[in-house]
């Protein structure tokens, strides 16, 4: 399918489609719109709220989810319909189903997150609408979070806090991070930032990458593994960190067999997607002591139900898909979007473009 062309004459309408709660700072939004419109006299920016419920967004992002979620999609307001009719490019978190029909002039979507499955379910590939993600916009914040979790677990900060609450003086000694071997599942922007920070601690960093071939190298990585040797890498690692997107290949990647391949007493961290992990197998590994601990910032079901057994799993550090920094995200996202707008106008390659046939 050929991509929709960018019109040669203006005006070119750009849409900012954020959830209502993201439009809180009117002055900052006006400043951003002015900066975008200053890029080219043909540009006209419209900001209209558009968002879908979290549960619907999650369902649309899963394999087969689009087919069973259409009836749950909110009806468009007149303002939203008018905007979609006019726009040539948008930045947003969500899109309505059949967006190619609703937005006949739309040529390109800049996604807000690193993942894009829910946006792809809008039917972009069928009509040649291009899609880019914001991969890397949150890389530093998430990498800092990951290193924080690694240090928290090694230095036993949680246990120290508990003893403080009980007014108990205790000899609680941690272990050095220097000299550890840590394996990274995926080597995108997040794990590349993790590797740079771990290298400063004197850690030996291994990583897996789908395209890795013998002799390949990467900054701060001692050795690269292809994904078909992932379990071999696990056996060498004190800690395993996952930061991969959801694709057909990554769903269920960390199952009971993969966890069993990890070194006894390893620490597992997941800041990618919850669908990567067999959560039942993880809980069993924590209960048995095969894994000494785990840290999850994502879950297969979000928000996590109150009766989910993950809440009570031993030695599990849970957070709530909040390893990023919203303030940094918007600064970096809009910098990326402005750069991509310039590229889009010039007919150049867009940053972080998704191959919609492959889904990533």
From TrEMBL:
Domain D-isomer specific 2-hydroxyacid dehydrogenase NAD-binding: 150-322
UniProt xrefs under CDD domains: 2-Hacid_dh_1
InterPro entries given in the database record: D-isomer_DH_CS (IPR029753), D-isomer_DH_NAD-bd (IPR006140), NAD(P)-bd_dom_sf (IPR036291)
SUPFAM superfamilies associated with the record: Formate/glycerate dehydrogenase catalytic domain-like (SSF52283), NAD(P)-binding Rossmann-fold domains (SSF51735)
Entry's Gene Ontology molecular function annotations: NAD binding; oxidoreductase activity
Keywords: NAD, Oxidoreductase
PANTHER family: 2-HACID_DH_C DOMAIN-CONTAINING PROTEIN, D-ISOMER SPECIFIC 2-HYDROXYACID DEHYDROGENASE NAD-BINDING DOMAIN-CONTAINING PROTEIN
The protein's name: Unannotated protein
Organism field: freshwater metagenome
Taxonomic lineage from the root: unclassified sequences, metagenomes, ecological metagenomes
């Amino acid at each position: 399918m050929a991509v929709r062309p960018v019109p040669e004459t203006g005006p070119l309408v750009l849409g900012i489609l954020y959830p209502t709660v993201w439009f809180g700072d009117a002055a900052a939004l006006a400043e951003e719109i002015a900066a975008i419109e200053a890029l080219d006299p043909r540009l006209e920016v419209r900001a209209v709220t558009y968002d879908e419920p979290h549960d619907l967004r999650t369902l649309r992002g899963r394999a087969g989810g689009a087919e069973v979620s259409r009836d749950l999609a909110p009806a468009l307001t007149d303002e939203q319909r008018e905007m979609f009719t006019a726009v040539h490019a948008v930045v947003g978190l969500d899109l309505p189903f059949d967006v190619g029909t609703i937005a006949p002039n739309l040529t390109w979507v800049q996604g807000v997150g690193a993942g894009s499955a829910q946006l792809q379910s809008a039917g972009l590939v069928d009509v040649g609408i291009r899609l880019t993600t914001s991969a890397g916009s949150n890389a530093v914040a998430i990498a800092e979070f990951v290193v924080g979790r690694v240090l928290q677990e090694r230095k036993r900060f949680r246990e120290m806090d508990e003893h403080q609450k009980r007014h108990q003086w205790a000899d609680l000694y941690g272990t050095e991070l220097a000299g550890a071997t840590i394996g990274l599942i995926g080597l995108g922007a997040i794990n590349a930032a993790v590797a740079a920070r771990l290298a400063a601690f004197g850690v030996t960093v291994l990583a897996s990458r789908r395209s890795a071939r013998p002799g390949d190298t990467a900054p701060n990585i001692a050795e690269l593994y292809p994904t078909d040797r992932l379990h071999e890498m696990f056996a060498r690692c004190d800690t395993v960190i996952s930061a991969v997107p959801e694709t057909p290949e990554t769903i269920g990647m960390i199952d009971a067999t993969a966890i069993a391949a990890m070194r006894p007493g390893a620490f597992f961290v997941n800041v990618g997607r919850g669908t990567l992990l067999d959560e039942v197998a993880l809980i069993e590994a924590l209960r048995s002591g095969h894994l000494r601990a785990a840290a999850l910032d994502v879950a297969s079901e979000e928000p996590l139900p109150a009766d989910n057994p993950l809440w009570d799993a031993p030695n599990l550090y849970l957070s709530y898909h909040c390893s990023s920094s919203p303030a940094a995200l918007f600064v970096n996202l809009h910098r990326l979007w402005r750069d991509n707008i310039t590229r889009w106008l010039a007919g150049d390659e867009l940053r972080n473009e998704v191959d919609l046939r492959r889904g990533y």
